[in-house]
Amino acid sequence: MIGWQAIVASGGFLCGSLIQGLIVLNNPKYVPKPWQLVLIFWAAIIFAIFINTVVSHILPKIEGFILIMHCLGFFAILIPLLYYAPHNDASEIFTSFSNGGNWQTQGLSFMVGLVGPVFAMLGADSAVHMSEEIKNPAKNVPRAMVFSLLLNGSLGFGMLLAVLFSLGDLDTVLATPTGYPFMAIFEESVGSIPGSLTMAALPTILNIAATIGFVTTASRMTWSFARDHGTPGWQILSKVDPRSSLLLASIAFTTTVRSTVYPRVLEERMDMALTLREEVWE
Question: How far is CA 102 from CA 110, 112, 211, in A?
């Protein structure tokens, strides 16, 4: 349960930092501030709460639209990336290794670097926590989990290869002021600010959409634990609103915890990241 609450905070943080990255990409003079990140974080969480409460009756249709956008967005990024970007040699892609963190061994460097890709694959179990709202969950939940891993794993691996072949100079990409190397790769590939903004906006929109699902899953899991008397205050958190059949108490709990505790932690991490980035630029 704590893990999913943390994922909600991570989604809000990524929404804020991605939007700030888009602003920097469009206007290099813009300097991102931690308090601005916190405000965007709150806006993303509030938007997710709005979808999960006020218009929750159309949530399945929204999720279906997100799936279509997810698949079409893959080709909207992949095609211009492969067509316009200069390509690296296959030998350079598959035989060169970088230990930028100066870890003791290449294997340790690989394992540390694996944290990011693993984070991108989190959430496959979300269907489990929605099983009470799914028809024939004994069959459909496992199918949803396997299909999610196969689809996203295949698309992710294809995009990974495209990005690696279009990488360009690694040091230049990592030093991008946007904070996200993929934005720099898009800009170098298409050679156009509007084009790169459009391409980078797609993952940003999808991350905002993912935050909706994060809130949905986290609130369901909180309610499930409370129903089994597994959390403090279960008498309140386990309640279901009789008029809307929504888990308003658990949704409110998720909103409160993520919007009060985590922003302070994220602000401190942002200060550290900005300081480190300034040192790298110097």
Answer: 11, 11, 34
Which amino acid belongs to residue 275?
T
Q: How far apart are the first and last CA of the chain?
A: 42
| Residue bearing tokens 């170098």 | 188
pLDDT tens track for 152-178: 888 888 888 888 888 877 888 888 888
* H or E, element range at 256: helix 248-260
Q: What is the pTM of this model?
A: 0.83
Q: pLDDT digits over 235-245, tens only?
A: 888 888 787 77
CA distance linking residue 95 with residue 81, whole number of Å: 22
Contact 51, 62 (CB under 8 A): yes
Using CB atoms within 10 A of its CB, is residue 268 exposed (0-12), middle (13-18) or buried (19+)?
exposed
